[in-house]
C-alpha cells in the first residue's frame, strides 16, 4: 500500500516525509481493532509536535506514518461486531502519538470511532480532535448562557469552539487577525483583532458590559492574558489552556501560572490544561450538529494524498484557517452513506 513515512525528525518531520508505495498493510492485533481503508485524514498539530519532541525516541516506532483523525471504510471488522465490513466510520487512530492513518490502510479502535452518518469523509475527518477538544473545554465547565473568550478563533479548535459554544447557548468573543475577522463573525463570534496589540485592553473594555465566565486559550503566547484574567473574567472563571510543548519557553510560564500560590502573587483564576479525550457520545453530538448545519466544518484546504507534504508545510506554518484535510481515496458508491 501507499504510506507517508518518516524515520528522522531532524529539522521537523515535514522535510523527512517520504511516500512509500510498497509499505506493508497493517494487521489487526486486538479484539476492538479494525482495519480501515482510509478515505480522508484531518491534520492537527499533534500529527507533528510529539514527533518533534523528546517523546520521539520512546513513543514512536520508525518508520512512522503520521495522521490521527480519519474517515474510512471498515475492511476487517472488530471481534466485538460493533462495525461490519463496508461500514464507513470516522474518529481517531488507535494511538494518538503514533498516528498511522496517512496511508491506504490503517488500524482504528472501536473506542475511538463512530459511524459517519450523512457526513462527507472530508467533513468527518476534520472533526475528532479539534471538535472534541473544543467541546470538552467548554461543556462541563460552565452553566448555560455564559460569556466565553476564545483566544485564537480562526484555527481548527477555534472555529469549532465558537460554534460549539453557540450551540450550547453561550455568547462568544474571540481574538483573531483582521484577515480572519469576517470568518469568525460569520460563525457567530464578536471579534477582537489581536494584531492591533490592544487585546487585554479590549477585553477589559468588553468586560465592563459583561465579564467573561470562561477563557479558552488556543494560543498561549501572551502570559498577561492569564495574569490579568481577574480583570476581565467573573470570580471562579476557568482558564483553559490547549497548547502543550515540552520546551522551556512554554514550561517556565506555564509552571509558574500553575504552581505559584495566590498569596505569593500567583494568578487569581484556576488554570487547567486539557487533553482531548475520544468520548464517542460527544463525537456523535458534534456529528449531529454538523448534519443539522448548526456547526459548519471550516476547511482551510483539501489536498490530494500526493500533496501531503505541502499540507504539513501549511499545518506547521501556524496560519491554518479551520482545518486541513488530506483526501486519500474515494468511498465505495454503495457504502458511502452507511449509518
Ligand atoms: N490539548 C489538546 O488536546 C489539544 C487538542 C487540539 C489542539 N491543541 C493545541 O491547541 C492549539 C490550537 O490548535 P489548532 O488545531 O486550533 O491550531 P491551528 O489550527 O494551527 O491554529 C492556527 C490559527 O491560529 C491563529 N493564530 C495564530 N497566532 C494567533 C494569536 N496570537 N492570536 C490569535 N490567533 C492566532 C492563526 O490565524 P492568524 O495567524 O491569522 O492569526 C490560525 O488561524 C495548538 O497549540 C494545538 O497543539 C491541543
TrEMBL record:
Cross-referenced Pfam families: ADH_N (PF08240), ADH_zinc_N_2 (PF13602)
Residue ranges of domain Enoyl reductase (ER) in the record: 12-326
CC terms in the record's Gene Ontology section: mitochondrion
PANTHER family for the chain: ALCOHOL DEHYDROGENASE RELATED, RETICULON-4-INTERACTING PROTEIN 1, MITOCHONDRIAL
Recorded GO MF terms: oxidoreductase activity
Domain of life, source organism: Eukaryota
InterPro entries per the UniProt record, alphabetical: ADH-like_N (IPR013154), ER (IPR020843), GroES-like_sf (IPR011032), NAD(P)-bd_dom_sf (IPR036291), YIM1/Zinc_Alcohol_DH_Fams (IPR050700)
Originating species: Extremus antarcticus
CDD domains, A to Z: MDR1 (cd08267)
Designated name of the protein: Enoyl reductase (ER) domain-containing protein
Gene3D superfamilies hit by this protein: Medium-chain alcohol dehydrogenases, catalytic domain (3.90.180.10), NAD(P)-binding Rossmann-like Domain (3.40.50.720)
Amino acid at each position: 500500500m501507499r504510506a507517508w513515512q518518516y524515520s528522522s525528525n531532524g529539522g521537523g518531520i515535514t522535510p523527512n516525509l517520504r511516500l512509500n508505495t510498497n509499505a506493508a498493510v497493517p494487521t489487526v492485533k486486538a479484539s476492538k481493532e479494525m482495519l480501515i481503508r482510509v478515505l480522508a485524514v484531518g491534520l492537527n498539530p499533534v500529527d507533528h509536535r510529539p514527533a518533534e519532541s523528546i517523546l520521539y525516541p520512546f513513543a514512536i516506532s520508525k518508520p512512522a506514518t503520521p495522521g490521527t483523525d480519519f474517515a474510512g471504510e471498515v475492511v476487517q471488522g472488530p471481534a466485538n461486531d460493533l462495525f461490519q465490513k463496508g461500514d464507513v466510520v470516522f474518529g481517531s487512530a488507535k494511538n494518538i502519538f503514533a498516528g498511522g492513518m496517512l496511508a491506504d490502510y490503517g488500524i482504528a479502535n472501536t473506542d475511538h470511532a463512530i459511524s459517519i452518518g450523512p457526513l462527507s469523509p472530508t467533513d468527518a475527518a476534520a472533526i475528532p480532535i479539534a471538535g472534541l477538544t473544543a467541546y470538552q473545554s467548554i461543556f462541563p465547565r460552565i452553566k448555560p448562557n455564559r460569556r466565553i473568550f476564545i483566544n485564537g478563533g480562526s484555527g481548527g479548535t477555534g472555529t469549532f469552539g465558537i460554534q460549539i459554544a453557540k450551540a450550547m447557548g453561550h455568547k462568544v468573543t474571540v481574538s483573531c487577525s483582521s484577515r480572519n475577522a469576517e470568518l469568525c463573525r460569520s460563525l457567530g463570534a464578536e471579534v477582537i483583532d489581536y494584531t492591533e496589540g490592544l487585546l487585554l485592553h479590549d477585553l477589559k473594555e468588553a468586560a465592563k458590559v459583561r465579564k467573561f465566565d470562561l477563557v479558552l486559550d488556543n494560543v498561549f503566547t501572551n502570559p498577561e492574558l492569564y495574569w490579568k484574567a481577574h480583570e476581565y473574567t467573573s470570580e471562579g472563571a476557568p482558564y483553559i489552556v490547549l497548547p502543550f510543548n515540552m520546551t522551556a519557553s512554554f514550561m517556565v510560564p506555564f509552571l509558574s501560572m500553575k504552581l505559584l500560590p495566590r498569596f505569593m502573587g500567583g494568578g487569581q483564576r484556576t488554570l487547567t490544561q486539557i487533553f482531548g479525550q475520544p468520548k464517542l457520545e460527544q463525537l456523535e453530538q458534534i456529528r449531529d450538529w454538523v448534519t443539522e448545519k448548526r456547526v459548519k466544518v471550516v476547511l482551510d484546504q483539501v489536498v490530494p494524498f500526493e500533496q501531503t507534504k505541502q499540507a504539513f508545510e501549511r499545518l506547521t506554518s501556524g496560519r491554518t484557517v479551520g482545518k486541513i484535510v488530506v483526501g486519500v481515496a474515494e468511498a465505495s458508491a454503495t457504502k458511502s452513506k452507511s449509518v
